[in-house]
Each structure stands twice: as structure tokens, then as C-alpha cells.
Design a protein that fits this description.
Blueprint: E1 9-11, E2 23-29, H1 34-50, E3 55-61, H2 66-71, E4 79-84, E5 89-92, H3 98-104
Parallel strand pairs: 2-3
Antiparallel strand pairs: 1-3, 2-4, 4-5
Length: about 110
């Protein structure tokens, strides 16, 4: 019972909080494990709400594309890599702590809770 939900998805939506900067994000996951699925759902929701229109999200399954995981020196999954804007930042986990993800993406100062 294998669902192929992680094969290099790219998601784009509308502009909101980024001030025009497009965020390039890569989320590395391990198949359809619950932790990976939660990370995909959580980062999609965060991107839709806070980066809407100004992001490109690539979801990479390390089982399907181990060469990309090796090239990025991935040691744990799920891991989100913010490639742009610089500096590159890596966040490990299921992305359920929205405040920490926003801090990691350097969006926290733009958001009022």
C-alpha cells in the first residue's frame, strides 16, 4: 500500500509576507512515514499562509532520489532547506512548531500573532 505523494512536487501560490522575495525551499522526507506526511502537510500549510505566491517548494523522497540526499549531506529527515533568500537554513522535524519554522525562515519578525 504505497502512495507516491512525495515525487518532486512544486507548489506555488499568491504573495503575502515576503516583500517580493521568492523563497526556494526543499523538503527531504522518507517515503510515506507518518512523520514525513506530517512535515509535508505542515510546511504546505505554512507556505500557503505566510509565503503565498512567493515560494517554490520541492518535496524530495530520499528513497526515490538518494543522490539528492547525498548531494545535500542529509543526515536526518524530514529536513527543510531554505535555499533562497540566503543564508541557507536547515530545519529538522515535522514542521509542527509554526513559530520555530517562521523563525527559521526568518519570517517571524514580519508576523504578528
Amino acid at each position: 500500500m504505497s502512495k507516491d505523494i512525495t515525487r518532486n512536487k512544486k507548489v506555488k501560490t499568491k504573495d503575502k509576507y515576503t516583500g517580493g522575495e521568492k523563497y526556494i525551499l526543499r523538503l527531504f522526507v522518507a517515503g510515506v512515514l507518518p512523520y514525513s506526511i506530517r512535515a509535508i502537510e505542515n510546511i504546505n500549510a505554512i507556505c500557503e499562509q505566510y509565503l503565498s505566491g512567493n515560494f517554490e517548494l520541492e518535496i524530495i523522497d530520499i528513497y526515490q532520489q538518494p543522490d539528492l540526499a547525498l548531494a545535500e549531506d542529509i543526515i536526518a529527515v524530514p529536513i527543510l532547506i531554505k535555499k533562497f533568500p540566503l543564508p541557507e537554513i536547515r530545519l529538522i522535524g515535522d514542521m509542527s512548531d509554526i513559530e520555530e519554522v517562521l523563525k527559521g525562515l526568518q519570517l517571524f519578525t514580519l508576523i504578528r500573532f
